[in-house]
Amino acid sequence: MFRGKNLIRILPQADASCQSSVQSIIRVKKMTDCQGDGEGANSPMELYEKLNAQGDKVRVLKTAKAEKAEIDAAVQLLLKLKVDYKQMTGQDYKAGSPPSENSVVPNNGPAADDAKDEDTVDPWNVSTTSAKGVDYDKLIVRFGSSKIEKELVDRIEKVSGQKPHRFLRRGIFFSHRDMHQVLDACEKQKSFYLYTGRGPSSEAMHVGHLIPFIFTKWLQDVFDIPLVIQMTDDEKYLWKDLTIEDCHHFAVENAKDIIACGFDVNKTFIFSDLDYMGACPEFYRNVVKIQKHVTFNQVKGIFGFTDSDCIGKISFPAIQAAPSFSNSFPQIFGGRKDIQCLIPCAIDQDPYFRMTRDVAPRIGYPKPALLHSTFFPALQGAQTKMSASDANSSIFLTDTPKQIKNKVNKHAFSGGKDTVEEHRKYGGNPDVDVAFMYLTFFLEDDEQLEKIRQDYSSGALLTGELKKILIETLQPMITQHQERRKQVTDETVKQFMTPRPLNFKL
Length: 506
Hints:
This protein is α/β, with parallel strands linked by helices. The chain has 22 helices and eleven strands. 50% of the residues lie in helices and 9% in strands. Helix 8 links the parallel strand 5 and strand 6 (227-231). Helix 14 crosses helix 16 (350-359).
């Protein structure tokens, strides 16, 4: 995510009015150099002036056609200042309408939910103070993506000829970049391919890890297209206290769980970075092209890297970007570099692909399109996503039916009331109840899910009964997955991970 405080760069095409605006921004900056981005404004007027200056800065950068990363960082700060302004004054910021002297919201105790600290979302950290989870509408604004509206879901149904997946129907995949462009190509009988991935940090995956693969399999089936799955074992070696051998072993073991989702071996290529980078010159050449077009300042701003981070981390984003381009896979696409890529992933991976989309036209490639999912919450609540390192935060794909039952009953955060009498009278809150959240991911029947919501909200359904429904949903699902995984041999993995042609029509 964009974190760096980028100084203004004036490009040759900036006109005199831009230069004048820059001078005013510099004057404001001199007064605030020792202050934090959203701090240091002791009065509404001071914050209003900071907002004016930041708005000028964004306009200057856009007019001067500055680097996208620089513009995005400036826009993110502008949005943060607007939130701070509303918290301080109780009013939305409007240019040309300065606050009155008395427009300060009194401090009457703890802040309301919508006035709390901004959610933290980046490729390594996800947290929020809200029991409902991350505010995805605000995240769309921060990241500059587009909301998946009903119109787009209906169009996907029309083009694919299939009922939309429950993840689309329920807003679990909620945001996109250029999905309309992909559908335009489909209507013209042009093919595209899918790319998603997994960072293997342990042998066992949890149910949250399945979300992108369940949806990707549906996309592969309904559109009948090839898929590449990147196992970023190199990333885990760089970020985790693991040996390189362990990371590669985890990649192979995780590949077995991915294959058990039912992917077609004739249309799916799974690759380990540690293996493929050395075996495919075309892939590495694309990595180098991307590296040449991304500066150190940009990756610091996008990913928050510091001078203490190893150089492997700084260069890794180019490796995650390379599968977005079809000629990184000559065995599949030959030398073609014009085939559109669609990436289903969780929204925390978006910073990698904002960078990729910025670079793509400069090296002659189409921008990848994206479909973003929400986060799968930990059992303890939606304030954070599941962790593979905390056995009690997750339902693992290796868990027994008894372990599943015990984890749900003991650790799943409840939206119910403290007593049965209160719950019957006032009802529970499904928006914060983890058992209900999990059912939105895994229960196929929309009518049944809505009835559960209504019964729980009215108090007709108790927390224990809701947890029982979840347990009875998860137990057979995990058992069936384990049975399929047993059928995945080392030879099967080798088939999926061998570079080869795939069966599809261009």
